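Late entry, written up from scratch paper. The run itself happened at the end of the previous shift, but nothing got recorded in the book at the time, so transcribing now.
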Amino acid sequence: MTHNYLAVNIVKIWLSRDDIPAIIRSVKVERLHSWQVSVSEALDIQRRLAGQVSKKSEFVTPHFIAGVDISPGKAQGMARGAVVVLSYPELRVVETEVVQGKLNFPYIPGLLSFRESPLILAACERLTATPDLILVDGQGIAHPRRMGLASHLGLFLNTPTIGCAKSLLCGRHETPGEKPGSYAELVDSDEIIGVALRTKSKMKPIYISIGHKIDLESAIHWVLQCCHGYRLPEPSRLAHLAAEGNLKVAKATAVSEVGYQGKLFE
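Output as recorded:
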């Protein structure tokens, strides 16, 4: 089934960081499991955690919306994890954190969260501005075991998350309408697991799914609110640029085995 969803125009009011001190607070990362696991253990963890995902919205209007992404480094086995926090509704960059380090889990479709989460969490834990909502370049419950990267990060950060994937992992859908805001339901085993959402005319849709602590209708709404004329919502687009080193930010922090990864991979 296809639908149309009209986005509300974003009002651009440029705030300085001093305008929002009352809602600045540090980010906390839960320790739900070790990242040093086998493939079979990773599968078991996904099945167990899937039951903990909340599909209900637990916020009204966000003060901060973040995007997270990861990009391979120049050296083999290395990568950059990035998080960019924007104020809402201005969508002005408030804070950016980038870390670089090793990828300690093999590339296996469906298990990318075990490969990518540690560096993304390392970047998130450096934040001083805590996001109320996080857009993740990856799947939420639009995943064979209903536990993609967005859901995994949402549980670790105890924060509402939305999966904003550029490609389809599982399920089927009709072609959404050409008008931005049109979408088609993504169905797997007779379950609606997300939508194929048209965010820009003449561009491929992106795949939106519940990550954690949000319902699907709200996920669609907030993604459209964050679109600035590009295929990707602004938090995701800027996080992608930051992870690739193409956003003007401070030099990436190296994550060493005796540093943050020592905690992540314990």
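The beta strands are 2-3, 64-72, 78-87, 92-102, 133-136, 161-165, 183-188, 191-197, 206-212, 253-254.
(Scratch paper discarded after transcription.)
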